[in-house]
Every structure is written in C-alpha cells, then in structure tokens.
Amino acid sequence: MTIPTEELKQLLCNALCAEVRLYEKGENLIFVETPFSFSDGDTYSIYLRQLPSGGFRISDYGHTMMHLSYENDIDKFREGTRGKIFEQILNEMDLREENGAFYTDTPMENIGAALFRFGQAVTKIHDLTFLNRLRTESTFYDDLRESLQHIVPTEKVTENYVYEAMPNARDYPIDFRIDGKYAPLFVFGIPGRDKARLATIILEHLLREKAEFDCLLIFADQSVIPRGDLARLSNVGGEMVASLDAQDDFQRKVLKRVA
Question: What is the pTM of this model?
C-alpha cells in the first residue's frame, strides 16, 4: 500500500496552521497563540519582535518563570542537579536568558522550526517542577543537604561518613554524621526502596558492632516504600520523617538530638 505522503502533508499543515494565530500587540510586536499550554491550562506566552538586522527574536518576556513562581521556588531551578539540567536545556535549545526572560534569535526562513523548538524548551523547563513532587535520587540528596545546612552548622556535619570500627566500613557509608548531644546522629536519606534496603543493612552492621549513635531516617515519600521493607527498616532504625517536605518535623527531630 502506498502512503499518500502529499495528502498527509497537506492535512497536517492545515491542522497545525489552524492551531497557530498571530495578534499584533503594538509596534513591531506580535503575540503568537499556539496549542502549547501549562498543566493549569494557561497558554505559553510567545512573542515575535523583528530585529533591526533582519530576522526575529522569539521571547516569552519573562512569563514562563513568573508562571512557575506561583507554586515553585524558582531559585532552586539554578541550584544543584536542577541547575545543571536547566543549563543543559538552554544550551540544547539555543535559548538565552535575560532578567528571567527567555529568547532566541532566528532568520525568517527558520522561524517555524525555531518557534516549535522554543515551545519545546518551555515545556522542558516546566517539567523541572516535577522534580519537586517526584524527586529523583540525585535531587533528593541535594535537597536533603540543603535542608541540613539550614538547621546545623556546616562544621558539625560530615557527609558520606565511614564508621571505621565496622568491618568493610567503606562499603557501608552513612549519608550524614552530625555531632549530637549524647551520641553522633546518623542521618540516612531514603529516596526509594533500594536505599531503604541498603540503610537496613548498614544499620544492622552498626548494631552488631554495638556502635553508639542516634538515627534519623528521612524519606522522599514514605508511602511508596513497600510495607515489608519499611517494617525491616523500622526494626533497626530510629525516628523517621515521612517526607522531606515536612520541614518543621525534620528540624524539630534534628535539633532534639544535636548539641
């Protein structure tokens, strides 16, 4: 069977063109209405301004970051793993940022491809918000470290601590050791099932060596840990914080044990 390529191309062109509208917004400025939208239904703000040297500048005039700031701390988009992903998106999509506004310059003959690439870039930037709700392992540890820094002086914290008295100790690093009131506080971050199992093993080794310590287990989301894994971890672990978002609970439990 022969695919009617030209007919299909025409149908797609007609459908896509029907989804794009242009509105003049003042001298030399055009608003482009596209089918691109945020999860709450607001459409992307995309503007075209003709450049004196020819071609066009495509910009959101700061609307993307303003929209995301309603429910997110956008400063975090430039920190840690999020910051690296953010910079990667800008570089891959040939975007520049100026005072919170994203833009790219393109010759007129490439404006269609540039416009869709711009929309794709805004979508990728918006997707960084999912790292707040569904943290990847790497961003979870970034956030855990940052939270501890707000509670405890840096000099009291040792990251990836090794309890040397334990056999093969370097195979069982402890996420954070904090100088405690009566004993060191060992903090374990638990982003998922695998780390819950590893933390159980580490704690069992520590208990076998009769190590003196307090323990605090911080979950990305305790509800996603299988019941059996959670039960085994609770048998050997100390107090728990069900989610890193529970900052008041986290701070209270840390300060209770820290000198």
Answer: 0.53
